[in-house]
Amino acid sequence: MSFQYVFMEAFNNIRRNGLVVLGAILAVFISLQLMFGTLIFGEIARINTVRWEEDVRVIAFLRDEFRDVDALRDEVASWDAVAEVIIFSKADAQEEALEMLANHSSARRLIEERPGILPASIRVRPVDLEQYDPIVQRLQSSPGVSNIITAGPQIAALTALRDGLRVVFSILSVALGIAAVALIANTIQMAIYARREEIEIMRLVGASNWYVRIPFVIEGMIEGLFGGALAIGVAIGVYRIALQRLTTLPEFITIDIGPEFLTRWSIITLVFGVLVGILGSSLSLAVHRYLKT
Amino acid sequence: MIRLDNVTKTYDGGVVAVKDAALEINKGEFVFLVGPSGSGKSTLIRLMMREERPTAGDIWVAGKHASVLANWKVPHLRRSIGTVFQDFKLLPNKTVYENVAFALEVTGRPRAVIKSQVPQVLKLVGLSANADRYPRQLSGGEQQRVSIARAFVNRPLILLADEPTGNLDPATSVGIMRILDRINRTGTTVVMATHDHAIVDAMRRRVVQLERGRIVRDQMGGLYDRRGAGVPVDQPMRTQGDIEVPIADPSEITAEIPAISRPIATRPERVDIDPETIEMNAIDPARSELAAAELTDVEDAR
Known about the structure:
The structure holds 2 protein chains of 2 kinds. Chain A is built from 10 helices and 4 strands, in the order H-H-E-H-E-H-H-E-H-E-H-H-H-H. Chain A has helices spanning 3-16, 18-55, 69-78, 90-100, 105-113, 132-140, 152-194, 196-204, 209-245, 259-287, and strands at 58-62, 82-88, 121-126, 145-150. In chain A, helix 1 crosses helix 9 (209-245). The two termini of chain A are 21 Å apart. The model of chain A has no long low-confidence stretch (mean pLDDT 81). In chain B, strand 7, helix 6 and strand 8 (189-193) form a beta-alpha-beta unit. Chain B is globular, with a radius of gyration of 19 Å. Residues 228-302 of chain B have low confidence and may be disordered. Classes of the chains: A alpha+beta, B alpha/beta.
């Protein structure tokens, strides 16, 4: 059996049932698109979570009368759980607040009128996110500290969003994946029906079962491959456009996930598409009466 | 070559198509399966080609225990069997040449074999000039000849024909029978289910008669009708040019088709089939050459 034969047969089948094949390819495309999209978003969330973890700060606001800031910094920096401590002066705090309140003129005016209203602080980058609570507890006992806030809730929000979307996309991906398998099985079923006379004659003259079946399996694989390729193409296209257009993101969020991740997961998605195609065509071949001996 | 031991085939719903059939067909025999519609002729053919499995009993075909043969081995059995049907089963989108070549292609024969075998077998059935035509451009008789060419191009040990003349007029049927006879003379065993009284009576070969699934007669040199030698039930026909004329004397038919006539053989002794010794190779080169040498163009012979 030659490669030319099996591919010619497969492409002839695809041509004969153009619309149904298109439906199957689109189903694979949508399913894998969701899968690939989820993966890309998950990666963006991961990168940004990592960034937050690296930069996470416990912010300890200092009492105005507290003078021994450098000593406090040195003490906190000596703690095992602390990676870095930065002193944030009243001037720094004012500058940051003015930036944050750019759209709130009355609040800006208040700050500008009363310089020094905002407290100085020390900002702590813990070695690990897990070691975060002990730092807060120790800081609370320090006499110079008036108030402590943490960046925890922001990280939690981003992680929750990522996990929520993962669940929704996963369910949709699986449902559409099943639909894709069923649609491919349907196109193969139609192809078998269209060629039933040929199959009957093949079997009469003693063609082996694989000789009869392989073109249909190849057809399913091609449909899965096309669906997968389309999904990757569109996902990467949309991602690239987003990368160009989303220039006004807050500086602490990055959406650049790098080419390695995209290459690796593109290949995996393609293989997945091919597997969906093989599964669909195999299902069809297994149940079809024209192919039963 | 073919042996049935107490074969019964019951379909779902309890319909008994073949009941307790015992039959042995030797290499090179020409056997007619006769009987009314529903008597089990086609089922018997389907059992022999392992399209069906018997409900009870054993079937041996071309040295293979067909009744217990694993599904994946069926294609190999089929390569030693040629099949011809009433409805020709040709592929409409392939030419005559391609239809015949198809049988070789799908069994993985090299191109060189296809190129040499297909023209040879087309010559045998007298269709060399029509090689590039499509089935729809051919008459019924020509289409059936293509189907015979396809069945024989593999040089099978056995040719099973289910009503091959069922769709054809008597004159055309005679042409088909000539070809089947020539194929039989190369040593190929031919089993043909038929309703055609004239053909059976003219050829005087072994006749196996079925009624309600049972073999009720197995007669060497028999006539279609069980009344035996002498009186055919229907008036046989012969052709003069394009016109069919009735024949008063059945013996005249054998005179009309000299290539088919042959002395009436005695029934061969029953011999147990030993699968080890039976000829397994359907494409024995020696046989192939023999066939090529012996088979001459029908049109040349005219």
